[in-house]
Structures are given as structure tokens and as C-alpha cells.
Design a protein that fits this description.
By secondary structure, the protein is mainly α. The chain has a domain of 252 residues: Orthogonal Bundle (ABC transporter involved in vitamin B12 uptake, BtuC), CATH 1.10.3470. 70% of the residues lie in helices and 3% in strands. The protein is built from 13 helices and two strands; from the N terminus they run βαααααααααααααβ. It has a two-stranded antiparallel sheet with strand order 1-2. It is globular and about 80 Å long.
Length: 375
């Protein structure tokens, strides 16, 4: 009996990793994903509300940049302010994430930085302004660094799960913030701190206006940190060590890189910058401290850092895009009388498409060619 042979067909679709893609092609894919998301969101909006998608998107832009010449500058600066806050946190996450240390604790690091800043504003308000600012900066950097140090030490020494550790640290920071809000509540019984230094020591510890703009110093500080982190990661010896550890810790050890030391050092830097974001928020924006000071931006910053592939200059555009979506969602809910959940759904669809576009940038789909059967 003749041996029976079977021919195994190739799968209809195979997925292969791309070696590289030109920058212009990846940019086109990302732009295309945003346009596709806008089309899909527009269809959903029309089916559920009957509203014109164009009017909805126009409302989103007005929410971020204003609807008339009188409020263009005011709303635009608020959008820039919030973009800088988000960008600062994302820049802080960049070195840890590039090292493949999943720092999910940015929310807590921002909060402890904000607590340290508020404490300086309350207890050291009689210091000269420059000295007070130096104390606030130092305290916020130190608080954030220490909050990042603890999970780093446990990871380096006992290889604990940094994702869970840093996530739980957020809840500790949240309760710590609640404690200090109750301690500093003003007026008594209000369960909130209120605006710090409004009375006799008016605006002590507040960012000064520069060229008439209240938030210009926010921009200067964050952009300086952004540029500095870009060169640190790309051109410094420590940045190179971070990159090698991110690729392979065993390779890093073989190359003589002190992995545990780099993990601790990098998390000190990451936590310190996130703590600085707390300083910028409390001193340069809110002028108070509460459990909502971080406002979820610590988690949104993860998306910013990841989509930007840890390039801090790219983070500027991504942070601005997400901030515009957030501001626009609130405006859409107001203008069209719909739930904010509906407007958040638009943002979610756009984010899903942007994240999904990374698949087509990093991978290609190979379809099986039809074979003609032998006659």
C-alpha cells in the first residue's frame, strides 16, 4: 500500500515583525488611525444623538482653545497648563519605562510632591520668595524621589513585582493626602484646604506671572526638564545603561553594568520628576492640595510615554492631543446636553485606534498566495 502523504497548507494570514519603517510611513499610519477613529465616532454620535459630527468636533476644539476672541487666550493657556502637567509626568516615567521598570505609581509620586510643596507654602510662608521657592522645589523632588525609592529597593534586592508595588503606593499617598487635607482644612470643618496664602501672605509660594502670563513659568520648567531628559536618555552613559537593561538585564550584567544600582538611581530620578509635577500643580496652578490634585494624569501619562516610545519631544504632541480630547469632551457634554460619558467614549475610540495603529507600525500581515492546483 502506497504511503499516504499530506500537504500542510500555510495559514491564510501570517504576522511578522517589521525590522524598520520609515518615519513618514509611521506618521501617515498614525494620522490615518486618528481620521478613521473620527469617522467611526462621527457615525456613532449621529446614530445616538442625531447631532452633526462636524459640530461635535468643532465643539471639542472650542472647549480646548475657546469659542470667541475674548476667551481664546484664556482657554488656550489653560490647555497649555494642563498639557505641561501631563507632559512632566510622562517625562518622569520615561527613564523607568525604558528600563522596563513598570512605574505605575506616578499618581502617588505627584501627590507626595504636592503635599511637600503645600507644607512649605503653609509653614515657611515668611521666608523670602526665592528661598521659599528653592525649599518647595527641593522638598517636592525629595518627596517624589523617596516615594520612587521604596519599590526600587524591593525590586533590586528581592525582585518584587514593581507594578503592584507602585500601584499600592498610590493608595498610600492618597490616604496620606486625605490626612493632611484634614490637618490643614480651611475653613475648619470644610474638609478641604482651600486656596493657600490668600490672606496676609497673599500669593506667597505662587508662581509669578511672566510677561503677563500666569502659566509661562510652568512651560519653561517643564520644557527644560523635557529637553534635559531627551539628552540624558539619548547621549549620557546613564541613559545607555538604562537602554541596555531595558533590552536584557542578563546582557547588562555580562557587560559589567551594576543593574541594581541603576534601577535604584533611575527610580529616584523618575519619582523626583513626578514629584516636581506635584510642585508645578500646587504652586503654579491649583494653589491648593487635595486627593484630586493628580487627577488621573499619572495613568494617562503612561499612554503618553508608551505611544511616544519614550521620546520626550514626541511626548509634547501626544500630551497636547490627549489634553485637547479631555477638554473637548467636557465642552461637548455641555453644548449638546449629553452625558460626559458619551464624550469620553469619543476620546476612548480615538485612543483605541491610536494604540491599535502601533500594531501595523511594528508588524506586517502576510497573506497566503493562492496556489493553482496541478491538473
Amino acid at each position: 500500500m502506497a504511503a499516504m502523504t499530506t500537504h500542510k497548507k500555510d495559514p491564510l494570514v501570517r504576522i511578522a515583525r517589521r525590522e524598520s519603517m520609515p518615519t513618514w510611513q509611521s506618521l501617515l499610519i498614525r494620522i490615518g488611525s486618528v481620521l478613521a477613529a473620527l469617522v467611526l465616532a462621527g457615525v456613532i454620535i449621529y446614530l445616538l444623538t442625531g447631532a452633526s459630527p462636524i459640530d461635535v468636533y468643532k465643539s471639542m476644539l472650542q472647549g480646548a482653545f475657546g469659542s470667541n476672541p475674548k476667551n481664546y487666550a484664556q482657554k488656550s493657556w489653560i490647555t497649555v497648563r494642563d498639557t505641561m502637567m501631563l507632559l512632566c509626568i510622562a517625562v518622569g516615567l520615561a527613564p523607568a519605562f525604558k528600563m522596563r521598570f513598570w512605574n505605575i505609581g506616578a499618581e502617588g509620586q505627584v501627590l507626595v510632591g504636592g503635599i511637600a510643596t503645600a507644607a512649605c507654602m503653609i509653614y515657611l510662608k515668611n521666608l523670602p520668595p526665592l528661598l521659599l521657592f528653592l525649599c518647595m522645589v527641593g522638598a517636592s523632588l525629595l518627596a517624589g524621589a523617596l516615594w520612587g525609592l521604596l519599590p526600587a529597593v524591593f525590586k533590586a534586592k528581592w525582585d518584587t513585582n514593581e507594578t503592584l508595588f507602585t500601584l499600592m503606593m498610590n493608595y498610600v499617598a492618597l490616604q496620606l493626602t486625605s490626612f493632611f487635607v484634614a490637618k490643614w482644612e480651611n475653613p475648619v470643618g470644610s474638609n478641604k484646604v482651600g486656596i493657600i496664602n490668600q490672606g496676609v501672605n497673599a500669593k506667597q509660594g505662587w508662581f509669578p506671572a511672566i510677561f503677563g502670563q500666569d502659566y509661562l513659568l510652568n512651560v519653561i520648567i517643564v520644557m527644560a526638564v523635557t529637553v534635559g531628559m531627551f539628552f540624558y536618555l539619548k547621549y549620557s552613559k546613564q541613559g545607555y545603561e538604562i537602554s541596555v537593561i531595558g533590552d536584557s538585564r542578563n546582557t547588562a550584567r555580562y557587560a559589567g553594568i551594576p543593574v541594581n544600582k541603576v534601577i535604584i538611581r533611575t527610580m529616584l530620578i523618575s519619582g523626583a520628576i513626578c514629584g516636581l509635577a506635584g510642585f508645578i500643580t500646587v504652586s503654579g496652578s491649583a494653589h491648593t492640595i487635595s486627593t484630586s490634585t493628580a487627577g488621573g494624569k499619572g495613568f494617562t501619562a503612561i499612554i503618553v510615554a508608551w505611544l511616544s516610545k519614550f521620546n520626550t519631544f514626541t511626548m509634547i504632541a501626544v500630551a497636547l492631543l490627549l489634553t485637547v480630547f479631555d477638554k473637548g469632551a467636557i465642552q461637548v457634554a455641555t453644548d449638546f446636553g449629553i452625558s460626559k460619558d458619551m464624550s469620553n467614549m469619543i476620546t476612548g475610540i480615538i485612543l483605541f485606534f491610536i494604540i491599535g495603529s502601533e500594531f501595523f507600525i511594528n508588524y506586517r500581515m502576510i497573506f497566503r498566495k493562492k496556489e493553482k492546483e496541478a491538473a
